[in-house]
Write a structure and sequence with these properties.
Largest interface: A-B, 18 and 20 residues
CATH architecture of one domain in chain A: 2-Layer Sandwich
Order of helices and strands of chain B: HEEEEEHE
Number of helices of chain B: 2
Distance between the termini of chain B: 53 Å
Shape of chain B: globular
Radius of gyration of chain B: 14 Å
Structural class of chain B: alpha+beta
Number of domains of chain B: 1
Oligomer: heterodimer
Number of helices of chain A: 4
Largest sheet of chain A: 4 strands, mixed
Strand content of chain A: 15-25%
Helix content of chain A: 25-40%
Helix content of chain B: 25-40%
Order of helices and strands of chain A: HEEHEHEEHE
Number of strands of chain A: 6
Strand content of chain B: 25-35%
Structural class of chain A: alpha+beta
Number of strands of chain B: 6
CATH architecture of chain B: 2-Layer Sandwich
CATH superfamily of one domain in chain A: Cation efflux protein, cytoplasmic domain
Shape of chain A: elongated
Largest sheet of chain B: 4 strands, mixed
């Protein structure tokens, strides 16, 4: 996507024969991130963090990440200065104008997965589009596990 | 208006409209599978926006049940229309609050 748009710009620049050596700005671009005075690029990490936070805002989301990464994340969070884990369970693909998001999440037992995923999807789309101006073309949700309350509670101490 | 705001506000509007109907004692969100509309930072129990047809789960404290459900449906339809949503809406009588029923002499 990024390559094709660059090609178009170069074609226009050479065909137009402006002579300035810089490609002419594309007036057809509808992206809020591209202007005639320069382009704004947004890193994958930024979009991934926004998506992770947006998903966690929904009460039906217990945690994020597939099994192994969740366990590694718990270990990693014990090490100081080792990231905040906000983008755990999130993988994104970010282009010039569009973004696609894949989420791994864990929900609670007894929740409607349909409702949770609908709420997560619409919140992730809204937050990313509002904060970055990118158009979110798809949000794929993989419900990796169902958390049963009291499943991983600390065992009671044998001594008082 | 964004979709998330629409979701949250629609759920709250449906709850407020239906709970105001005389004979509707509460919305029912508990069960084997929780019925609740979820949005960032909260949920509205008893309102199901996950299905194609939104549904409101009510407990009734006035007999006969039929007219109460009918009024609740009308209230829900008005709330949907006010929110600019033209989908049909469904009322599910999920419980009967016997304690709040008038005593039969």
């Amino acid at each position: 996507m990024a390559e094709s748009s660059t090609d178009t710009k170069e074609d226009k620049g050479t065909k137009g024969g402006s002579g300035s050596g810089r490609p002419a700005p594309t007036p057809t671009s509808h992206s809020k991130l591209t202007s005639e005075h320069g382009n704004t690029s947004i890193a994958d990490t930024v979009v991934a963090k926004i998506a992770g936070l947006a998903a966690r805002e929904i009460p039906g989301v217990q945690s994020m990440g597939a099994g192994m990464s969740r366990r590694m994340g718990q270990l990693r969070s014990l090490v100081p200065g080792n990231g905040d884990g906000l983008s755990r369970g999130v993988s994104v693909e970010v282009g010039e104008r569009e973004a696609a998001v894949d989420l791994d999440l864990v929900t609670w037992y007894g929740q409607s997965i349909v409702e949770v995923s609908k709420a997560v999807r619409s919140n992730v789309i809204d937050r990313i589009e509002a904060m970055t101006g990118l158009k979110v073309v798809e949000v794929n949700i993989n419900v990796d596990d169902v958390h049963v309350e009291g499943d991983d509670d600390e065992p009671e101490s044998r001594v008082q | 208006m964004t979709t998330v705001m629409r979701r949250g506000r629609l759920a709250q509007a449906l709850r407020d409209a239906v709970i105001a109907v005389p004979g509707v004692s509460r919305l029912v969100g508990s069960g084997a599978v929780e019925v609740a509309a979820q949005f960032p930072g909260g949920k509205v129990p008893g309102v199901d926006l996950g299905a194609d047809t939104p549904a409101v789960y009510i407990a009734v404290s006035r007999l006969p049940v039929g007219p109460v459900a009918e009024w609740a449906l009308r209230a829900a339809q008005e709330a949907m229309a006010a929110a600019g949503d033209d989908r049909p809406v469904q009322i599910v009588v999920a419980d009967l609050d016997v304690d709040s029923l008038p005593r039969q002499e």
